[in-house]
Write a sequence for this structure.
């Protein structure tokens, strides 16, 4: 994709928030501009609103810096200091989140209520070969697709969660679940599934507590679905 774009004089941009630079390096694969949501794994606490842009060529950095200056975009010294401190522990936090995500993904995949688990480290996941070729690991964010008979009961069953919270800003210390109506929000490429996904982000709580919460969630969905 990068080679095709560059032949036409176009720039290639990549949002690398899911992998972070620890698991994937877009600039080494031909990207010209890379964005990271520092709010997530870099911060580790989901309470800093910040992002970063990395570029291949110094000329791009100059143009972006000049434009941001005109817009008045900036960050506070305290927030920048928080990110720099948190970066020291990010390898440990990311490795833990990825390991627990794979354990929970396997639990979901083994249940007959579940149609598919979208985590690229799993061989059946679309894009697994590309992930295996280019990435150094997985982060803690993945999605679960439930079967049609179970789907209407997923959202109500979330109310019984005890360790997971219901929320959207993943990549922090808290473990999160949230329904995602992707088909309604996505334009290109089209979402291939007709149903919403349950998005899950693993944080830093005890994996045993998380597994117990998932077991109880699946049991509540099963009871509601009548099976």
């Amino acid at each position: 994709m990068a080679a095709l774009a560059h032949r036409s004089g176009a720039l290639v941009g990549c949002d690398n928030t899911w992998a972070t630079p620890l698991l994937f390096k877009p600039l080494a694969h031909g990207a010209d501009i890379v964005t990271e949501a520092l709010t997530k794994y870099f911060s580790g606490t989901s309470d800093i609103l910040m992002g970063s842009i990395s570029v291949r060529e110094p000329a791009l950095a100059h143009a972006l810096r000049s434009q941001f200056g005109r817009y008045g975009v900036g960050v506070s010294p305290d927030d920048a200091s928080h990110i720099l401190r948190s970066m020291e522990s990010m390898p440990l936090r990311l490795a833990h989140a990825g390991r627990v995500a794979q354990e929970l993904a396997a639990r979901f995949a083994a249940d007959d209520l579940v149609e598919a688990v979208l985590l690229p480290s799993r061989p059946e996941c679309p894009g697994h070969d590309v992930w295996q070729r280019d990435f150094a690991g997985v982060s803690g964010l993945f999605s679960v697709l439930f079967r049609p008979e179970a789907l209407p009961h997923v959202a109500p069953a979330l109310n019984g969660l005890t360790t997971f919270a219901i929320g959207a800003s993943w990549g922090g210390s808290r473990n999160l679940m949230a329904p995602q109506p992707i088909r309604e929000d996505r334009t290109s490429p089209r979402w291939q599934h007709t149903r919403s996904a349950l998005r899950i982000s693993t944080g830093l709580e005890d994996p045993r507590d998380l597994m117990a919460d998932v077991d109880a969630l699946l049991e509540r969905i099963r009871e509601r679905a009548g099976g």
